[in-house]
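Attaching the record inline, Q. Sequence:
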Amino acid sequence: MRLLALIIFAAVPAFAVDFVREVRPIFEKHCYECHGAKKQKNDYRLDIKASALTGGEDHAPNIVPGKSLESPLFRFVSGADEKIAMPPKSKLSSEEVDVIKRWIDEGAVWPEGVDVAKVEDRLDWWSFKPLAKRDGNIDGFIRAKLAEHGLKPAEQADARTLIRRLYFDLTGLPPSPVEIERYVLLPYEKLVDDLLASPRYGERWARHWLDLVHYGETHGYDKDKPRMNAWPYRDYVIRALNSDKPYARFIEEQIAGDVLHPGSTDGITALGFIAAGPWDYIGHAEVPESKLDGKIARHLDRDDMVQNTMGAFCSLTVGCAQCHYHKFDPISQEDYYSLQAVFAAIDRTDVNYYPDDASMQRFVDLEQQHKKIAASIKALEEPLKQKAGEAYKELSKRIDGAADKASSTNPNVKPDFGYHSAIAMDQNTVKWVQVDLGKSVEIQRIVLKPCYDDFGGIGGGFGFPVRFKVEASDDPAFKTGVTLIWRKHDATFMNDFKNPGLMPFETGTAEDDGARGRYVRVTAVKLAERKNDYIFALSEMEVFADKNGPNLAAGRPVTALDSIEAAPRWQKENLTDGIAPEARTQEDKQRLIKERDELMLAQADAATCKQLNDARKQRGVIEAEIAKLPKPGKVYAGAIHTGTGSFKGTGNEGGKPRVIQVLKRGDIKQPAKEVGPQSIVALSEAFHDEYHLAGESESARRAALAKWITDKNNVLTWRSIVNRVWQHHFGRGLVDTANDFGRMGGRPSHPELLDWLAVTFRDDLGGSLKRLHKLIVMSDTYRQSSDKAEPADANNVFLSHQNRRKLDAESIRDSILAVSGRLDLSMGGPSFQDFVIEKPQHSPHYEYQLHDPEDPKSWRRSIYRFIVRSQQQPFMTTLDCADPSMRVEKRNESLSPLQALAMMNNGLVVAMAKHFAERVTKEAQGLEAQTRRAFVLALSRSPTADEIRPLIEYAQREGLENTCRVILNLNEFSFVD
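Structure, as predicted:
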């Protein structure tokens, strides 16, 4: 009986571990400090069931019910894992460890409703909720909120104030006295319509958009090289705004215009959006993608593309999920890296485009045909190459090395004609030679070809300078407007340039460098030794606007400091005659290519030969048709890149997207798992969208993302844009954090109005930004006076009056040019440079102090100014211009002594004050009338007696030019009511 009792007792299980009574107290004592409500290390918390059982960044799931030995949590607290011990500062007792083990082995039973913390619904936030449109209008919503706070609206501003306000808001320029007089007599709506129809509107509002997407015309980072082809994207934005392109189309073109709207110029130039931000030249062009630094550079590049896209269009801070689950918004690490996968095949590169849609469509059609023919030719050739075997490979090697065969001692190479300077006895004698291109052109690449001569046994490289520089200018004397393209003679480069033999020297490529000018000059500052004397000689100078374009220097006139002029061998005109020593090596190369092709065809039967010849002829016809098209332009944009050196991109693999993995803690050295393209899962479920970003081709991925963002159910998109437009009309958005609609951002001051505007814009206005502008500026709220102030609403959040605002840097600069009569309103094209570049081949220096403010090319509107990242324009920066390396949704508005000093003493202000005085001298007679005229031009109103008297006295004492400078420095000139 006793034995039976023992057997029965042993068979009865012990009481199951109680979670609330036994397990939770252990978690509270040891774990909640790091994995509780205040802190969640490794994105793991033990006070909420869902997170405890399935969460954790690195080891999820941390608890495997029924299997304690397979549960990371048990291994960590028991000390079974040698690398990780939890908690880190103390240990659980053996009894506590045993409780955890038994609880897990029994199934890790965690009853419902016993969580210490409340599970937070991250979607329970105003910006993620569906749009709700109530009946009403702008003024109704504003006045209801004012009444709620015991406030009353201000009176309407006077006509002159409204005209000036509208001119600056919609065009960024001041009205002329004639325009003031005209519109005072016309209906206000006529003024609104005329300004929205003006081409100046697109120029003004493009600046706001370019701030937002951190557009710049240099790369940034260490080697802040110029982007000579960034400007077509800027012109696209201006063109899109002026044509009132529907906002959904505006978004689609910038993310996937080449896919969703092929055959259109805008579909290509808009892709400059993807490449608008900074780019690490060293990490891409100098470090291979296989190296750690190369991987980091490309990871950061995709991060910029993702954050720019989601921030600009959806006002979301997705970058927070790069290292961990977003702390506040419903964005997981998987979501973030899935968005990176959308851009996994994309790099930043120059892309061809045609300025008209007809040519663009023709090119797209021909390019598609060419790809098909090329694929069929490759399919026919590959088996033949295999049959040709080692002989084919050997010929290929010889072709690749053909250019190197002509050494400096090759006896078969005969002397060639070229330019030869006068002989000098001092090696440091300066010599120069230059080519006149006939007109000012964009220069992307310059090739200098060495001479060959057996004099003194020199051979190849005869006379090639030891130290030299290459410059471009529109001034034949090279005294003004000089752009330094390449230099090899300062302290940065202490080593002499080695004799190049017959290898041509190139200044760079379209991706790296660029300049503009009519004249190209090579200046030798350390000459090549001849025999007991020194010379400077070149066989050929070639200048190119793009990689495959014609040589712009061919046959052009040549001038030089001196020349021996020993015709026909040595004379200046030989520098552009197209004859150079390496021409014979190219002939050798073509001969070898022909020989290789014949070897391959010898492996084919008659039918295959016919197929291949027919396909090649068809390819030739297509290439001839492409050649007939006008010369394409280039835009720096996001696209598949096929290159050389370290920066190869994915073009070499047919544009196949890179593998993207979730990175533990954002560390490129800790890939966790591969992910595919996808939108933000929680938001997709909330918005009820049908766009899943899965797809092998990179173009399908971008197209799907564009469609997800522009879906009518994506409430973030529509709230974001109407808030941005509102902000620029009132100085403050309905949501003050325009780039962050998440939980760390602000709440809307007028939520009903925000939703009403979003739905109205999306559904009733057809996504027309011009109609949205009109809706806002026609309201009584916009037309209020700025004179009233309410102590109860010091920041004017509820808009009891209009805000008096300081003009942005561009408006101030453009106004100075406008009132002086020197503003150049020509639109589009390459940006003007208000600096001189030094050292462009390495880390360029942008020297603003060397620029001449009297250069008429720099009198264009500020939107066309060349934007540098590393060395910003001092005058514009002092006036709170946006930093182009940052995504700026709202500019600072500061007041400082530096601004006053800049407005008084900057070279542009001083130069324009002189032109301002010249203008009023022509338009009015007598000093008093001229002073009055200057006041009216600058401030859009007549002066009072008390205002004009001291100005006239000052003009009598200091002169009209100084008086004009004083007027430009009046507060009223830089502010708008």
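DSSP finds 33 helices and 22 strands in the chain. Residues 189 and 778 are 7 Å apart (CA to CA).

More tomorrow.
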